[in-house]
């Protein structure tokens, strides 16, 4: 018999008052499952998935698996999936289809599907019926048990579908094989309780739960000791960190300050929800030089009626007041955002409100999306009479304005000296190095590879829409 535990979105929607325990990871009794074997993980979606991938890689490397980039030679392939929009899911189904032929050549290859997509009933049914070459399906709440699943499938030679709809305890001290040598993700909380009406995340990632501060501080101290230069604090809504603690009064502002006092060269955080962005947080960012002047603050729409239908809990005016407060207290800050166009019943006037907000907020970048209905969310049942053509035209108009913001943001740094964390050869021009400034601007410049991982000063000669060109100072 194959193991089968399917998800249930209705159950995932429930928010219990149950206390969330923090437990430390207990190593499995299985050892060296991967001796002489290779693994490959393909990661889709947001940084939460990238962080989960590092845990999965850590669990596999603990079992003596080694990493490969070549599908043909891998023994274990994990696809860590994203459910945020339909096109993200279609990409995964396309990839799963292609994998059938690899499995024919290498029948022992174990294919696992992880991440947000398995949390949806319809996805699991589709994999069960149409993608019979997939061996393991597991979700976001049971990453820590992956080795047991893999062992079961390897020994029993049967499929295993194990998806929990309810979040469990917080598991600390999981092994991590970090993807980067000088930049690290640090989860500070999991899940989301906002229930924006278009969004699947509160269903796929469970209720909001904050990690205890001592574990976070210990993790960051350890990273600094190992020479990490940049820490990005992760959560779907980092500003509500700590609101779920029932025994202590400790907020995101407190955490930011405690971390800023450590010797971390760069602290970033994502993602912020405007409704919880307190004055305290703004004050702490302005007070510490090692908290980067870069804030990603998703607005989603500039129309009050659309914001209401989205359940965003703020108005256009409140958002702009917050933005002005941020500009006032952190004058050098770069703001970016997320925007959805063609939300059900968005009118031409609603859309114009969004364009107006983009101008007023002076964003220096934005991720823009056409609304994609997600089964099980409230908005999926809203009447939607906006044609695809109209949606695309709105996206095009919005992107034009957003791109002007990118250029304006970059121009600010022309003929200035900026600090750059050097990442490596540029992806598009291998003869130059590239890295990011404190404001998260991409800089290209000539220099030796020995600079990779260092923070250096670069003089900016020219600003383009997507990047800055510079020369190393005093070279
Ligand atoms: N359709 C389109 N965009 C979405 N996002 C979230 N859900 C949807 C959806 N159903 C966008 C939001 C969010 C970002 C991560 O993805 O803008 O901030
Ligand atoms: Fe989704 Fe809204 Fe939560 Fe962001 S805050 S993850 S958009 S429900």
Automatic annotation (TrEMBL):
Binds 2 [4Fe-4S] clusters. One cluster is coordinated with 3 cysteines and an exchangeable S-adenosyl-L-methionine. It is found in: Cytoplasm. The keyword Nucleus does not apply. It is an enzyme of class 2 (transferase). The keyword Ion transport does not apply. Pfam families: Radical_SAM, TRAM, UPF0004. It catalyses: N(6)-dimethylallyladenosine(37) in tRNA + (sulfur carrier)-SH + AH2 + 2 S-adenosyl-L-methionine = 2-methylsulfanyl-N(6)-dimethylallyladenosine(37) in tRNA + (sulfur carrier)-H + 5'-deoxyadenosine + L-methionine + A + S-adenosyl-L-homocysteine + 2 H(+). InterPro entries: Elp3/MiaA/NifB-like_rSAM, Methylthiotransferase, Methylthiotransferase_CS, Methylthiotransferase_N, Methylthiotransferase_N_sf, MiaB_methiolase, rSAM, rSAM_horseshoe. One of its GO terms (cellular component) is cytosol. Its EC number is 2.8.4.3. It comes from the Bacteria. [4Fe-4S] cluster 1 binds at residues 46, 82, 116. Keywords: 4Fe-4S, Cytoplasm, Iron, Iron-sulfur, Metal-binding, S-adenosyl-L-methionine, Transferase, tRNA processing. Residues 37-155 form the MTTase N-terminal domain. [4Fe-4S] cluster 2 binds at residues 192, 196, 199. Residues 178-408 form the Radical SAM core domain. Catalyzes the methylthiolation of N6-(dimethylallyl)adenosine (i(6)A), leading to the formation of 2-methylthio-N6-(dimethylallyl)adenosine (ms(2)i(6)A) at position 37 in tRNAs that read codons beginning with uridine. Belongs to the methylthiotransferase family. MiaB subfamily. This is tRNA-2-methylthio-N(6)-dimethylallyladenosine synthase. The gene is miaB.
